[in-house]
Amino acid sequence: MKKLILLSTVFLLPLLIAAQPEVPIEEWTGKTILLVGAHPDDDAGRHGTLAMLQENGNDVYILLLTAGNVGTRDRTMTRQRLEKIRRHEQLTAMSHIGIPAENYINLGYTDGMVEFANPEELVKRLVWWYRKIQPDVLIAFEPGYRYQRWHKADHRAAAYLAVDAARAAEWHLIFPEQVIQEELEPVRIMEYMFWGSEGNNLTVDISDYVENKVQSRMSYLSQFSSTGSNNYPGDSDDYFMTLDDLPADERAAFIERFRSSTGPTESFRYYRGAPDGVGSGPALGGN
Ligand SMILES: [Zn+2]
Prior knowledge:
Elements (H helix, E strand, L loop, with lengths): L1 H17 L13 E6 L9 H9 L3 E8 L12 H18 L7 E6 L9 H15 L3 E5 L3 H5 L3 H17 L6 H5 L10 E5 L6 E4 L4 H8 L3 H4 L1 H5 L17 H14 L3 E8 L15
Parallel strand pairs: 1-2, 1-4, 2-3, 4-5
Antiparallel strand pairs: 5-7, 6-7
Helix pairs in contact: 3-8, 4-6
The structure holds zinc ion (ZN).
Zinc ion binds next to loops.
């Protein structure tokens, strides 16, 4: 029996170690960190962690697959105008967490249609950016349980694509022209943080960044406010609404909503190891 316990400990040890960062995330510095999501705002629930990482001397990038160009109930809105609004809101949100505009990449796919885009082209474009940015850490939707059962189609696609591209990016014979002609280096991403997981094993203290996160989340006025979503103000393509455009009672409720719902922690499923093992580890029961 003792031998059995010893054996299990020996076999489990690498998995247990891989379930936590070598250095606590609060002490990370000098890392390159890439978040991949589907829509402008998918990153917003992680903005406390991103603000902390950026301020601590890491380089944080946000890559979103779609332009966020269809999610409105305003019947006078066009895709073109909404794309501009969503870009403006995303960059405003990022400014509140200290991430520069040049660290924002948007692949421009149409909102709601990612699963119908050419998957090879999508993975190829992601791999190109992975090889260009050379991230140490990938933050993405959990490709596990919740997304296999059901989720918004773009999120489901983004969850798988982000990890599939990580698997492809390390092999120089996949999309070899990027390596040969464009002189990009293959990259083996060895740390992952997934949100929307049922196997969270990493809690990040963001108490110093709650105000940054409140401000950043309130930037998505065309999505999160009733006025912005149903009747976006202004006729010009270049007009972007502010909190002042909200009627006083809606504005007060809007601010209160974000103040009361932004907690002092954010949770992830952390995994350290080769991309092929992303689904393994004790947090998901081991496999
Ligand atoms: Zn989304």
